[in-house]
Amino acid sequence: MKIKMLSFLVTVIFMGSLFSSFTYGNRFNYDHCFGEADQVEQNLLDQGNSAEFAYAASNGYLDDCINDVDIAAAEYFAAN
Amino acid sequence: MIIRALYLLILLGFGSNRSFSQHIIVDYKTIPNGQYIEKSDGSESSSSKTLINEAFELVALMTSQLKASQTESIFLGTTQMNSDVDELNFKLAKLFVDNDSEYKCDLMNNSTSRWCTVFGKKFIINSKISDFDWKLTKEKKQIGEYNCYKAICSYEVINTSGTFRKNVEAWYTTDIPYRFGPKGYCGLPGLILELTDNKISYVVNNISFKKETFIVGALPKGELITQKKLDSLANKASEDRRSKFKKKE
Fold first, then answer.
1. CATH of the domain at B117
2. Which of B231, B238, B242 lies closest to A50 in CB terms?
3. Per-residue pLDDT tens digits for A5-14
4. Residues B140, B69, B208, CA angle at the centre, nearest 5°?
């Protein structure tokens, strides 16, 4: 019985850490920043803006988003 | 005789500000007209549309200034940093009104120039004032104490989404014979007190008549480029960014 409980506990802890690393792995990469920057650019182009303006705006978004990810990652690793 | 002299003195006194002014300084405020993109519809890009609309609202915080002699003008952004609003939205709002660029108009040389920073590099884009192709209308309205007339022109934007025609509406007054306005728009018979371009209105906030001579001088240094070439560089930069992102995936 004790062994069963122990193995269940180990499994739960292992799954938990796996889930945690997967979640933070996603949170601390820039993929969503690039995707959203593309959307910002496309929306501005669809409104008839110059490529120069659309690129500058999307790049402004990208810089901000990457900065946010870096800060979140730094805070997480400092706390854990 | 004394009465005549007094009358002349009063006349000169009233007129001195405008008649003897060597240059003017005009402050403009900006007003966003409605939402920039129609309300989010739950599609994939709805969060970016919301972001754009939120940034567009902050256009109302932007200010700019025109300095003009009889023959030349310079127009630039004068917006102060604002720590009460979201930094990203504020940055995008500045881009909407092109607040970091400088515009110069030179009536003698029929030229209008825009100095801007893109990709961290400084550029100058030259064009002709006559290219504005203003159509003067008889429509008029009062702005403050000035009688204003409406003039319209349009320009074409070609990008990867298609070809777009943008209309520009200007309200100018012949009461102030300085033929300039916001964002390098010039060449009308008087000062532009209100201009609407790309859903943004530039509205005069204050006019100062100055007695001192004003020389506009040259724009800051920058590489000469055309808008078409700048747009193609932006397209290339965007493709590079996209391909880097895809490689990572």
1. 2.50.20
2. B231
3. 667 666 655 5
4. 65
